[in-house]
Amino acid sequence: MWGSLMGDFRGIPSPVCPACGGNLLNITASFNYETYEIDMYLLDNATCAECNALITAPTPADIIQ
Ligand SMILES: [Zn+2]
Fold first, then answer.
1. Backbone phi and psi for residue 39, each to the nearest 5 degrees, phi listed first
2. 35: CA distance to ligand 1 center in Å?
């Protein structure tokens, strides 16, 4: 990355940060109150936990075969 600029990689769903390769993402999620599992999560406001780059969170439908 360049200085303190954050990358903006939204639009390309990725399970890892395109900027630093980190695999910890900050996402906005809601949880099912019966199973406590993640019910849904927002795709367009994920950020990298390492470098704060803006990322589009992946879904299983985004897997490229
Ligand atoms: Zn990153």
1. -85, -50
2. 31
